[in-house]
Amino acid sequence: MKKFCTILLMVFVAAAASWAQYDNVKKFELSLYGGFALTQVRGTTAYEDTWEDLILPYINEKTDITANSKNAAFFGAGLSYFFTPNFGVQLNVGYLKADVPPTADFNYNWQWNTGSTGSKTSTWTGTGSLSTIPISLNLVGKFGQDGFAGYISGGVTLFNNSFEATSSIGYGFTYLTVIWPYVYQNIDAIQVNMEVPKTSWMGFGGNIGAGVIIKLSDMFGLMIEARYFLCAKKDLDWNLITGNYNGLYTNYTNMTFSQDSANYIYDEGLLTKIQVNVSFFQITAGVKIFL
Length: 291
What we know:
Layout: H1 2-23, E1 28-39, E2 42-53, E3 56-68, E4 72-84, E5 87-99, E6 102-111, E7 117-125, E8 127-144, E9 148-179, E10 182-215, E11 220-231, E12 234-236, E13 239-240, E14 243-245, E15 255-257, H2 259-267, E16 274-276, E17 280-290
Antiparallel strand pairs: 1-4, 1-17, 2-3, 3-6, 4-5, 5-8, 6-7, 8-9, 9-10, 10-11, 10-13, 11-17, 12-16, 14-15
């Protein structure tokens, strides 16, 4: 028993000495950083309808829309607290905004009752943007020497997202012209505008990253970090914009796209939602302040 108490006392003294030494080490780290993010928005939408009219037994209109995001700037700040020299917790807040311009490809095909066919194509580029504010609570492990250290961290992330976009679909129609004594059937299409109004939502996800710290003094250092953020995808509806539009391929003017036409597309499920992927990969550099 005496020997056990002696060993226990020695362990306690050693632990106390270790903690006393750590008391002299700064336990807080403030991080300020910026860089770029490789965003992963790969939204797709499709509109398609097949119909017939008078001497046109087959008419097919289809619009494929892809919305690929551009690389974006990313800014962030973090505060870490270390329970030991190698283990702690970390709170990070960031901001990202990326352009997401949708591209619409319209294919229009038809066949006359004589067997002859026709086709037209058009392409339009819209506008779009995605912004997100990720707030992360992570566990962090640090290793290495005083002047140069590496770290790994990861945890849960609360995403505050916002998305908006504009684009178009091709909408076909026919009309009649009279050149006495003949009546001619003509075929045309209009470019119907649509939008995803600014929509905000919150969602939980995760993040994992790694970096290095180059310590310049007792209070300051430089950092380089790579991190991946994972967030659930979101499906958003397009709103078709009613009004009068001019023909794309003939001189027909003031073709009315009514609310009834929009409701038909909605009710028949002819226009799919756009899926927004908020996940992204960031590479940043900044400063560390040891407090």
